[in-house]
Amino acid sequence: MIEFDRVSKRYDGGYTALKGVSFAMDRGEMAFLTGHSGAGKSTLLKLMTVMERPSAGNVLVGGQALNRLRPRQVPFLRRHIGVVFQNHQLLFDRTVFDNVAMPLEVIGAPPGEIGRRVRAALDKVGLLNKERMNPIALSGGEQQRVGIARAVVNKPPLLLADEPTGNLDPELSADIMQLFEQFSQVGVTVLVASHDAELVRAMGNRVLTLREGELVSGGASPREQLHGH
Ligand SMILES: Nc1ncnc2c1ncn2[C@@H]1O[C@H](COP(=O)(O)OP(=O)(O)OP(=O)(O)O)[C@@H](O)[C@H]1O
Protein backbone atom coordinates (compact mmCIF):
# COMPACT_ATOMS: atom_id res chain seq x y z
CA MET A 1 0.00 0.00 0.00
CA ILE A 2 2.92 2.32 0.80
CA GLU A 3 6.40 2.18 -0.63
CA PHE A 4 9.27 4.58 -0.01
CA ASP A 5 12.28 3.95 -2.22
CA ARG A 6 15.41 5.86 -1.14
CA VAL A 7 13.47 9.02 -0.46
CA SER A 8 15.22 12.23 0.49
CA LYS A 9 13.72 15.63 1.18
CA ARG A 10 15.72 18.81 1.20
CA TYR A 11 13.71 21.94 1.93
CA ASP A 12 14.23 25.12 -0.05
CA GLY A 13 16.13 26.70 2.83
CA GLY A 14 18.72 23.91 2.48
CA TYR A 15 17.70 21.74 5.42
CA THR A 16 17.68 18.00 4.68
CA ALA A 17 14.71 16.55 6.59
CA LEU A 18 14.81 13.00 5.15
CA LYS A 19 17.80 11.01 3.90
CA GLY A 20 17.47 7.87 1.78
CA VAL A 21 14.37 6.52 3.53
CA SER A 22 13.12 3.12 2.30
CA PHE A 23 10.29 1.03 3.70
CA ALA A 24 7.08 -0.65 2.61
CA MET A 25 3.74 -1.23 4.33
CA ASP A 26 1.13 -3.81 3.41
CA ARG A 27 -2.58 -3.29 3.13
CA GLY A 28 -4.18 -3.56 6.57
CA GLU A 29 -0.88 -3.08 8.39
CA MET A 30 -0.60 -0.67 11.29
CA ALA A 31 2.73 0.91 12.19
CA PHE A 32 4.05 3.75 14.32
CA LEU A 33 6.46 6.43 13.23
CA THR A 34 8.65 7.75 16.04
CA GLY A 35 11.68 9.96 16.42
CA HIS A 36 12.87 13.09 18.16
CA SER A 37 11.33 16.47 17.43
CA GLY A 38 12.52 17.54 13.99
CA ALA A 39 13.49 13.98 12.97
CA GLY A 40 11.29 14.23 9.87
CA LYS A 41 8.04 12.50 10.88
CA SER A 42 5.66 15.18 9.60
CA THR A 43 7.74 15.56 6.45
CA LEU A 44 7.40 11.84 5.74
CA LEU A 45 3.61 12.03 6.14
CA LYS A 46 3.42 15.15 3.93
CA LEU A 47 5.14 13.31 1.09
CA MET A 48 2.30 10.77 1.03
CA THR A 49 -0.39 13.43 0.64
CA VAL A 50 1.80 15.43 -1.77
CA MET A 51 1.84 18.41 0.57
CA GLU A 52 5.56 18.18 -0.16
CA ARG A 53 7.47 16.49 -2.98
CA PRO A 54 10.68 14.44 -2.49
CA SER A 55 14.01 15.85 -3.69
CA ALA A 56 15.14 12.31 -4.59
CA GLY A 57 13.65 8.82 -4.63
CA ASN A 58 10.11 7.61 -5.12
CA VAL A 59 6.97 7.33 -3.05
CA LEU A 60 4.21 4.93 -4.10
CA VAL A 61 0.75 4.95 -2.55
CA GLY A 62 -1.66 2.20 -3.57
CA GLY A 63 0.65 1.29 -6.44
CA GLN A 64 0.64 4.85 -7.79
CA ALA A 65 4.04 6.51 -8.20
CA LEU A 66 3.47 9.98 -6.78
CA ASN A 67 6.25 11.57 -8.84
CA ARG A 68 4.13 10.84 -11.92
CA LEU A 69 1.05 12.46 -10.46
CA ARG A 70 -0.10 15.63 -12.22
CA PRO A 71 -1.21 18.52 -10.01
CA ARG A 72 -4.85 18.05 -11.03
CA GLN A 73 -4.72 14.39 -9.92
CA VAL A 74 -3.62 15.30 -6.39
CA PRO A 75 -7.17 15.90 -5.05
CA PHE A 76 -8.15 12.40 -6.21
CA LEU A 77 -5.20 10.88 -4.35
CA ARG A 78 -6.11 12.81 -1.19
CA ARG A 79 -9.65 11.42 -1.24
CA HIS A 80 -8.11 8.01 -0.65
CA ILE A 81 -6.09 9.13 2.36
CA GLY A 82 -7.64 9.94 5.72
CA VAL A 83 -5.59 12.35 7.84
CA VAL A 84 -5.87 12.88 11.59
CA PHE A 85 -4.08 15.83 13.20
CA GLN A 86 -3.11 16.53 16.78
CA ASN A 87 -5.25 19.65 16.94
CA HIS A 88 -8.04 17.90 14.98
CA GLN A 89 -8.94 21.12 13.09
CA LEU A 90 -12.68 20.94 13.71
CA LEU A 91 -14.99 23.81 12.84
CA PHE A 92 -16.65 25.12 15.98
CA ASP A 93 -19.43 26.92 14.12
CA ARG A 94 -20.83 23.63 12.81
CA THR A 95 -22.31 20.53 14.39
CA VAL A 96 -20.45 17.27 14.86
CA PHE A 97 -22.50 15.84 11.98
CA ASP A 98 -21.52 18.68 9.62
CA ASN A 99 -17.84 18.42 10.55
CA VAL A 100 -17.78 14.72 9.72
CA ALA A 101 -19.81 15.27 6.54
CA MET A 102 -17.31 17.75 5.06
CA PRO A 103 -15.24 15.34 2.94
CA LEU A 104 -18.46 13.95 1.44
CA GLU A 105 -19.87 17.44 0.79
CA VAL A 106 -16.68 18.30 -1.08
CA ILE A 107 -17.15 15.43 -3.52
CA GLY A 108 -20.87 16.20 -3.92
CA ALA A 109 -22.21 12.97 -2.42
CA PRO A 110 -26.04 12.74 -2.35
CA PRO A 111 -27.62 13.80 0.99
CA GLY A 112 -28.99 10.32 1.73
CA GLU A 113 -25.58 8.78 1.34
CA ILE A 114 -23.99 11.54 3.44
CA GLY A 115 -26.42 10.82 6.28
CA ARG A 116 -25.80 7.10 6.14
CA ARG A 117 -22.02 7.34 5.98
CA VAL A 118 -21.66 10.07 8.62
CA ARG A 119 -23.75 8.01 11.05
CA ALA A 120 -21.73 4.87 10.27
CA ALA A 121 -18.48 6.79 10.97
CA LEU A 122 -19.85 8.32 14.21
CA ASP A 123 -21.06 4.89 15.28
CA LYS A 124 -17.54 3.46 14.80
CA VAL A 125 -16.03 6.09 17.11
CA GLY A 126 -18.86 5.79 19.65
CA LEU A 127 -20.36 9.26 19.13
CA LEU A 128 -23.64 8.54 17.38
CA ASN A 129 -25.61 10.27 20.14
CA LYS A 130 -23.63 13.53 19.80
CA GLU A 131 -24.22 14.29 16.13
CA ARG A 132 -26.28 17.45 16.76
CA MET A 133 -23.84 18.92 19.28
CA ASN A 134 -21.27 21.59 18.64
CA PRO A 135 -17.80 20.05 19.00
CA ILE A 136 -16.81 22.81 21.42
CA ALA A 137 -19.08 21.14 23.99
CA LEU A 138 -17.18 17.84 23.74
CA SER A 139 -14.17 16.62 25.72
CA GLY A 140 -10.70 16.54 24.13
CA GLY A 141 -10.94 12.79 23.54
CA GLU A 142 -14.38 13.14 21.96
CA GLN A 143 -13.17 15.96 19.72
CA GLN A 144 -10.30 13.78 18.56
CA ARG A 145 -12.79 10.99 17.79
CA VAL A 146 -14.84 13.42 15.68
CA GLY A 147 -11.62 14.17 13.77
CA ILE A 148 -11.10 10.45 13.25
CA ALA A 149 -14.69 9.95 12.06
CA ARG A 150 -14.13 12.75 9.55
CA ALA A 151 -10.90 11.10 8.37
CA VAL A 152 -12.56 7.73 7.76
CA VAL A 153 -15.99 8.84 6.46
CA ASN A 154 -14.76 8.43 2.87
CA LYS A 155 -13.61 4.87 3.67
CA PRO A 156 -10.00 5.62 2.71
CA PRO A 157 -7.68 2.62 2.30
CA LEU A 158 -4.90 4.63 4.01
CA LEU A 159 -5.10 6.49 7.30
CA LEU A 160 -2.29 8.80 8.47
CA ALA A 161 -2.20 10.37 11.92
CA ASP A 162 0.24 13.04 13.10
CA GLU A 163 0.54 13.03 16.91
CA PRO A 164 -3.16 12.18 17.30
CA THR A 165 -2.95 11.79 21.08
CA GLY A 166 -0.65 14.71 21.80
CA ASN A 167 -3.18 16.51 23.99
CA LEU A 168 -4.84 13.53 25.62
CA ASP A 169 -4.30 11.70 28.89
CA PRO A 170 -2.88 8.13 28.75
CA GLU A 171 -6.20 6.33 29.02
CA LEU A 172 -7.87 8.31 26.23
CA SER A 173 -4.71 7.96 24.14
CA ALA A 174 -4.88 4.18 24.46
CA ASP A 175 -8.55 4.27 23.37
CA ILE A 176 -7.64 6.25 20.26
CA MET A 177 -4.85 3.80 19.37
CA GLN A 178 -7.27 0.88 19.80
CA LEU A 179 -9.61 2.61 17.39
CA PHE A 180 -6.82 2.83 14.80
CA GLU A 181 -6.06 -0.85 15.39
CA GLN A 182 -9.70 -1.70 14.64
CA PHE A 183 -9.52 0.15 11.32
CA SER A 184 -6.39 -1.79 10.37
CA GLN A 185 -8.17 -5.04 11.18
CA VAL A 186 -10.74 -4.30 8.48
CA GLY A 187 -8.03 -3.65 5.89
CA VAL A 188 -7.10 0.02 6.34
CA THR A 189 -3.35 0.71 6.29
CA VAL A 190 -2.59 2.92 9.31
CA LEU A 191 0.56 4.94 9.99
CA VAL A 192 0.64 6.92 13.25
CA ALA A 193 3.39 9.44 14.06
CA SER A 194 3.77 9.57 17.83
CA HIS A 195 6.14 10.83 20.50
CA ASP A 196 4.55 8.62 23.11
CA ALA A 197 7.18 5.87 23.46
CA GLU A 198 5.37 4.09 26.27
CA LEU A 199 2.08 3.86 24.42
CA VAL A 200 3.80 2.84 21.18
CA ARG A 201 5.59 0.03 23.02
CA ALA A 202 2.39 -1.11 24.72
CA MET A 203 0.58 -1.41 21.38
CA GLY A 204 3.15 -3.88 20.02
CA ASN A 205 2.94 -2.80 16.36
CA ARG A 206 5.81 -2.30 13.98
CA VAL A 207 7.79 0.86 14.78
CA LEU A 208 9.58 2.98 12.19
CA THR A 209 12.16 5.21 13.87
CA LEU A 210 13.64 8.31 12.30
CA ARG A 211 16.82 9.94 13.59
CA GLU A 212 17.94 13.15 11.94
CA GLY A 213 16.08 12.20 8.77
CA GLU A 214 17.36 8.63 8.55
CA LEU A 215 15.23 5.58 9.13
CA VAL A 216 17.21 3.78 11.82
CA SER A 217 14.79 0.94 12.57
CA GLY A 218 11.61 -0.69 11.28
CA GLY A 219 12.50 -0.17 7.63
CA ALA A 220 12.43 -3.86 6.73
CA SER A 221 9.39 -5.12 4.85
CA PRO A 222 6.83 -7.06 6.92
CA ARG A 223 8.04 -10.32 5.34
CA GLU A 224 11.65 -9.64 6.32
CA GLN A 225 10.56 -8.79 9.85
CA LEU A 226 8.75 -12.12 10.05
CA HIS A 227 12.05 -13.84 9.40
CA GLY A 228 13.74 -11.94 12.15
CA HIS A 229 15.64 -9.19 10.37
N1 LIG B 1 8.51 23.91 5.03
C1 LIG B 1 9.73 23.76 5.58
N2 LIG B 1 10.78 24.51 5.17
C2 LIG B 1 12.00 24.34 5.70
N3 LIG B 1 12.29 23.45 6.67
C3 LIG B 1 11.29 22.67 7.13
C4 LIG B 1 9.96 22.78 6.61
N4 LIG B 1 9.19 21.88 7.26
C5 LIG B 1 9.99 21.23 8.13
N5 LIG B 1 11.26 21.71 8.05
C6 LIG B 1 12.41 21.25 8.84
O1 LIG B 1 12.60 19.86 8.62
C7 LIG B 1 12.90 19.18 9.84
C8 LIG B 1 11.94 18.04 10.06
O2 LIG B 1 10.67 18.57 10.36
P1 LIG B 1 9.39 17.66 10.63
O3 LIG B 1 8.25 18.57 10.89
O4 LIG B 1 9.27 16.67 9.55
O5 LIG B 1 9.85 16.91 11.97
P2 LIG B 1 9.01 16.06 13.01
O6 LIG B 1 9.78 14.81 13.24
O7 LIG B 1 7.62 15.92 12.54
O8 LIG B 1 9.08 16.97 14.29
P3 LIG B 1 8.00 17.23 15.45
O9 LIG B 1 7.91 15.95 16.20
O10 LIG B 1 8.62 18.34 16.25
O11 LIG B 1 6.72 17.63 14.76
C9 LIG B 1 12.87 20.25 10.92
O12 LIG B 1 14.20 20.65 11.20
C10 LIG B 1 12.11 21.40 10.33
O13 LIG B 1 12.56 22.63 10.80
Automatic annotation (TrEMBL):
<comment type="subunit">
    <text>Homodimer. Forms a membrane-associated complex with FtsX.</text>
</comment>
<dbReference type="InterPro" id="IPR027417">
    <property type="entry name" value="P-loop_NTPase"/>
</dbReference>
<dbReference type="InterPro" id="IPR017871">
    <property type="entry name" value="ABC_transporter-like_CS"/>
</dbReference>
<feature type="domain" description="ABC transporter">
    <location>
        <begin position="2"/>
        <end position="228"/>
    </location>
</feature>
<comment type="similarity">
    <text>Belongs to the ABC transporter superfamily.</text>
</comment>
<dbReference type="GO" id="GO:0022857">
    <property type="term" value="F:transmembrane transporter activity"/>
</dbReference>
<dbReference type="InterPro" id="IPR003593">
    <property type="entry name" value="AAA+_ATPase"/>
</dbReference>
<dbReference type="GO" id="GO:0016887">
    <property type="term" value="F:ATP hydrolysis activity"/>
</dbReference>
<dbReference type="InterPro" id="IPR005286">
    <property type="entry name" value="Cell_div_FtsE"/>
</dbReference>
<keyword id="KW-0472">Membrane</keyword>
<comment type="function">
    <text>Part of the ABC transporter FtsEX involved in cellular division. Important for assembly or stability of the septal ring.</text>
</comment>
<dbReference type="GO" id="GO:0051301">
    <property type="term" value="P:cell division"/>
</dbReference>
<dbReference type="InterPro" id="IPR015854">
    <property type="entry name" value="ABC_transpr_LolD-like"/>
</dbReference>
<keyword id="KW-0131">Cell cycle</keyword>
<keyword id="KW-0067">ATP-binding</keyword>
<dbReference type="GO" id="GO:0005524">
    <property type="term" value="F:ATP binding"/>
</dbReference>
<dbReference type="GO" id="GO:0005886">
    <property type="term" value="C:plasma membrane"/>
</dbReference>
<protein>
    <recommendedName>
        <fullName>Cell division ATP-binding protein FtsE</fullName>
    </recommendedName>
</protein>
<dbReference type="Pfam" id="PF00005">
    <property type="entry name" value="ABC_tran"/>
</dbReference>
<keyword id="KW-0547">Nucleotide-binding</keyword>
<keyword id="KW-1003">Cell membrane</keyword>
<dbReference type="InterPro" id="IPR003439">
    <property type="entry name" value="ABC_transporter-like_ATP-bd"/>
</dbReference>
<keyword id="KW-0132">Cell division</keyword>
